[in-house]
Amino acid sequence: MKLFDVYPLFDVNIVKGKGCKVWDDKGQEYLDLYGGHAVISIGHSHPHYIEKVTEQVGKLGFYSNSVVNKLQVELAERLGRISGYDDYQLFLINSGAEANENALKLASFTNGRTRVLSCEKAFHGRTSLAVEVTNNPKIIAPINDNGHVTYLPLNDLAAWEAELAKGDVCAVILECIQGVGGIRMATKEFAQGLAAACKKYGTVLICDEIQCGYGRSGKFFAHQWLDIRPDIITVAKGIANGFPMGGVLIAPHFKPVYGQLGTTFGGNHLACAAALAVLDVFEQEGLVENAHLVGEYLIERLKNLRMEELKTKGSSHIQDVRGRGMMIGIDLDIPHKDVRVPLIHEQHCFTGCAGTNILRLLPPLCLSKEEADSFLEKLIGAQKPTPRSAEGRSQSENPSLGRGGKR
């Protein structure tokens, strides 16, 4: 048997990681400014994480949701406290797509409606409902194209209010910072107006925090920058630092019903141990605050680099820099592959991408200012033509490192 070939791959075999660095099978070190699709939150191979996961797998890796699992209870209590949602309820699954599936399902159970509003350029996953609310027709199979979704421009409040006023919208699903969409950010005015309209018309507001949440923006959730409180919040990626896990945070006015939602593997003992270890490190090392401070430092340095290049050379490949914390988009005036390929093969640095000309930075939340400075040097170096880079830039881009992969 061979692998089903759906990922165009860079010819790099990563075999080891530590903090914000990874190494290939030839011993070459790389700076990781992508964290495997924003999954690595506390850094690769954190010693506390290794200890807790090893300890748990030595006792019990899995048993079903037919028995009490006190690790789930502990995780719910601690996640509620650290995130500011201690009055919410937690349903655990295995991935971001599953989180969004269950969020949309729960919304429809609650109000009996079937129509969903989603953003243009949104990405919410690759399974049934999750892919239908994703604004990419190339990955929506005919069986998923069921006419449930209306896509609207981010930050165009009037357009959203007009659709909500029809009174038939089950749910709004929103990334407050779009990832695959190019690090586009919802404004406070839009988010607050949208939340008010959802409440007025009986629509469930779902914030997809799978990529932008879990500390990445410099607050625990990206929507907390906007002063809104959604009905449902979906999480995954950074929740367990690479162990497959997802979660749905559910407002107290939703009443659980036995059998309404369910999962075989979700919330298993090993996953909970990994997620609890992540919260330990968040608190012990102040990683959410670090994401804010170092992220703002890196954004400012990138903007200054652009201004310096304009002043000294009259032009810069950097057209715009935007984002929050450890979620940064760099608009280029050239295809991103012209920078990403030399970044990997010559500067030994991983980044992501969005669209055709956006570099997407999603490093572990433990990134230091020194490592941010190192990235700036590598970015400058990657823009200097060499024979190797000229050859590499003729190669095809690698969507598997830049478009969210699977959820």
In order across it, which strands form the biggest sheet?
A: 4-10-9-8-7-5-6
CA-atom Rg in angstroms: 21 Å
Order of helices and strands: EEEHHHEHEHEHEHEEEHHEEHEEEHH
How many strands, which pairing sense, and closed or not: the largest β-sheet?
7 strands, mixed
Low-pLDDT stretches? 388-407
Number of beta strands: 15
Proportion of residues in extended strands = 15-25%
With helices defined by DSSP (H or I, 4 residues minimum), what is the helix count? 12
Overall geometry? globular
Instruction: Work out the helicity level.
Output: 25-40%
Structural class: alpha/beta
Please tell me the overall pLDDT. 94
The N- and C-terminal alpha carbons lie at a distance of 24 Å
What's the helix and strand layout?
Elements: E1 14-18, E2 21-24, E3 29-32, H1 35-38, H2 47-57, H3 70-83, E4 89-93, H4 96-111, E5 115-119, H5 128-132, E6 149-152, H6 157-164, E7 169-174, H7 188-201, E8 204-208, E9 232-235, E10 246-250, H8 269-285, H9 287-313, E11 318-324, E12 327-332, H10 337-345, E13 349-350, E14 352-354, E15 358-361, H11 369-382, H12 387-392
Parallel strand pairs: 3-13, 5-6, 5-7, 7-8, 8-9
Antiparallel strand pairs: 1-2, 2-3, 4-10, 9-10, 11-12, 12-15, 14-15
Helix pairs in contact: 2-8, 3-8, 6-7, 9-11, 10-11
